[in-house]
Amino acid sequence: MREHIIRQFLDEPQYSHPDKARVTIIPAPLEYTVSYMQGTRHGPQAILNASSQLELYDEELECSPLEEVGIYTRPALDYRGLDHASALKLTGQAVREVLERGQFPLLIGGEHSLSLEPVAVAREFFPDLTVIHIDAHGDLRAEYEGSPLSHACIARRVLELGIPVLEIGIRSISAEEMDFLRSGADAAIVWARDFARGQAHIPWERLSEHTYVTFDLDALDPAEMPAVGTPEPGGLSWYQALELLREIYQRTTVVAQDVVELCPIPGQIRADFLAARLIYKMIGYRFSAQLPE
Ligand SMILES: [Mn+2]
């Protein structure tokens, strides 16, 4: 671990005023039900540390999103002494506070189960909400390893709230989940293999105006993003992911989002850096008045 701990995303405090910033980053070092590689609780700090090395100017958008938007990073959520359900409540409460202030909440995780309460809270503010679940995994299990709150169940729990889900990048799913899908679940899947063939068709008509984006970093090809708990082969390339995200922000109003499951590998900073850059690209796309062609 580096000695210098970065507390503000991008480490430019003059653009990180808690009231003036339009984006509030919520570090959520949640880790309760990780099944394979451990360490996702270290993800948020690794992202913040890597972010201090990013170029502020975005060569594609031809601006500095930080200077135009302002990005404030809250202190990390403190889950010590909390059980899993209480930790999820705390996470949702943080999102509520940000939405009440009229700001854009962006959670950085942390394991994927953290999305549940933020999605529920966002739906209170935007009743037509749909969820865009970008992930290698379906996460549609009824329960996993004894827990209905597991990271492997997050999309199932969201559907149970009556919120439609569009899953993108999927390449690992169980027979039980496929049966559930075929039983009439309000979910659609865009498979990773279709991106590889250049045949990915996103059913945009399924999305409402207001959306919540949950981005599990294992959606990306582990050749580019190795630092995830479950590195499934294949997945989206960096540029495929950017193209997808651009279109999401163009076509829908993303009202809240999370980027989860970074599981830092000591000494391997490229993954941390990629996660930080991806988050900055998302903010740029979200708040660019007009995306260049
Ligand atoms: Mn996943």
TrEMBL record:
The organism's superkingdom is given as Bacteria
User: Which Pfam families does this one have?
Assistant: Arginase (PF00491)
Picking any one GO biological process from the record gives: putrescine biosynthetic process from arginine, via agmatine
Concerning InterPro entries, the annotation shows: Agmatinase-rel (IPR005925), Ureohydrolase (IPR006035), Ureohydrolase_dom_sf (IPR023696), Ureohydrolase_Mn_BS (IPR020855)
Where along this sequence does the record place binding of Mn(2+)? H112, D135, H137, D139, D216, D218
Q: How is the cofactor bound?
A: Binds 2 manganese ions per subunit.
* One Gene Ontology term of the molecular function aspect: metal ion binding
Which keywords appear in this protein's UniProt record, sorted alphabetically? Hydrolase, Manganese, Metal-binding
TM regions (residue ranges): none
What cofactor does its activity depend on?
Mn(2+)
Q: Return the PANTHER family for the record.
A: ARGINASE/AGMATINASE, GUANIDINO ACID HYDROLASE, MITOCHONDRIAL
The entry's family comment says: Belongs to the arginase family. Agmatinase subfamily.
Q: What is the protein named?
A: Agmatinase
